[in-house]
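Notes, p. 3: input format for complexes.
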Amino acid sequence: MNPLFDLTGKVALITGGTHGLGMAMAMGLGKAGATLVINGHSSQEKIDKALQAYRAEGITAHGYLFDVTQEAAVTDSVAQIESEVGPIDILVNNAGIIKRIPLVEMSVEDWDQVIRTDLTGVFIMSKHVVKGMMERGAGKIINICSMMSELGRNTVGAYAAAKGGLKMLTQNMATEWAKYNIQVNGIGPGYFATSQTAPIRVDGHPFNDFIIQRTPAGRWGDPEDLAGTAVFLAAPASDFINGQVIYVDGGILATIGRPANEA
Ligand code: GCO
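Output follows (263 residues plus D-gluconic acid):
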């Protein structure tokens, strides 16, 4: 394996690694040699099912049930992971939720839940994992941002605020931690075929047709399309990259789009 992309001997913690984009990125990291630690917040059954999938691919994988928004649980779980599995070399802050509600109709409770999960949860996780990385003088942190780190869209205001903030948090983490040889970067997925987008992806849904039209690649992303970028940002190949967000979006951010009747 090319040493620039070899994760052999590394421990990678992926939050929300039980399904979707988190699982696809974790599979990539595992196949590059990393030992996986995944977290889920709602169901040990989901964790166990995901572990079976990783292990079926010959990947060493461990699972822990905790909520990234609860600092006491995070502190305890990080200590348990580092005791049972080993120091965390790579942290992928992937866990997140979305609520599609017009801002004027959104309750403060719903707003708070999105911000706390998608932004504050990343702060809590990173604050407790980075301490070991600082002591060891090495680490990789990858924050999963979004198209909404750059663009607004009707009904996803809280999510956009969180993901926009996450882009800036990524830059600030890089600013504070690069001197410890810790690289903090982001991945900004475009529109991917996942459970989160399933409601807006059904055939004939106007948003489905819009995304196909708005994406130069002319398709929804496949979760596996993210694996290579995750490996790159977790590997020695990115040791001099700090505070960047790499958009894996089929070209959406590169263009103003094209008229529906234009080929
Ligand atoms: C939406 C989608 C997006 C995608 C992704 C885009 O409702 O607009 O869910 O938010 O999930 O975040 O990068």
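The chain has seven helices and seven strands.
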